[in-house]
Amino acid sequence: MKKIVVLSGAGMSQESGLRTFRDMGGLWEEYDVMDVATPEAWQRNPELVNRFYNDRRRQLVDCEPNQGHRLLADLENDFDVHIITQNVDDLHERAGSSKVLHLHGELKKVRSSVDPELIFDLDGWELKLGDTCPKGSQLRPHIVWFGEAVPAMDEAAEIASTADIFVVIGTSLNVYPAAGLVHYTASNCPVFVIDPERPPLSMRGVTFIEEKAGAGMLRLKELLGSL
Length: 227
Ligand code: OAD
Hints:
There is one protein chain. This protein has one domain (3-224): TPP-binding domain (Rossmann fold), CATH 3.40.50.1220. The longest helix is centred in the first third of the chain and has 16 residues, at 46-61. Helices cover 29% and strands 19% of the residues. The radius of gyration is 18 Å and the shape is globular. By secondary structure, the protein is α/β, with parallel strands linked by helices.
């Protein structure tokens, strides 16, 4: 089976009703990233940071995977599909994808603020200030904030380097190291980019599909059939 590696971003979940970050009306228009998505913000104003992620978690409860997520899950019938996602939602898993690597953490998990290995599933949407890990420290969102290392990056680079086909869906390719993953692919690996707005990507062998994730995945299926 050929190996398809997918890098997904916020646009993947847009048709499920989740806002992207950098489009018009995106989350970073309403919030300053430095106020809600950095370790310094968590030190300075944990109430605000915690409320931001509680809001994201509460919204996720009402969202369902969209056609794009479902078509990606269906691809497992014909390909060895590995998804590397920058998204912190669980919509790929809920659509049935079996190999999903979260580069930027997971909304539905929380972790100890003194021991990053202590990760827990959160029951419900609300993390409360005062909720502690077994070592007694405050639990924090299990999110990779700006300025923090991306622990899954080595594994992601290894997966990308062994792709037969690489697909980028719904990411502006603004945030590194994730945005650099496509450059780990072999020189003969075809690359497909699904996004209504072409992200900046100048390399050989790229096919742009200028559609939203759902329609773009339908087109990708056709193109894969003719490879
Ligand atoms: P962005 O908001 O930067 O980019 C979203 C991309 O999705 C853009 O290129 C849009 O054109 C595209 N898009 C919008 N609607 C779409 C749709 N229905 N189907 C397909 N594409 C669509 O989001 P990311 O690139 O994911 O990190 O952002 C990367 C990281 O920056 C996030 O993981 C987050 C953020 O700050 C953290 O919070 C750590």
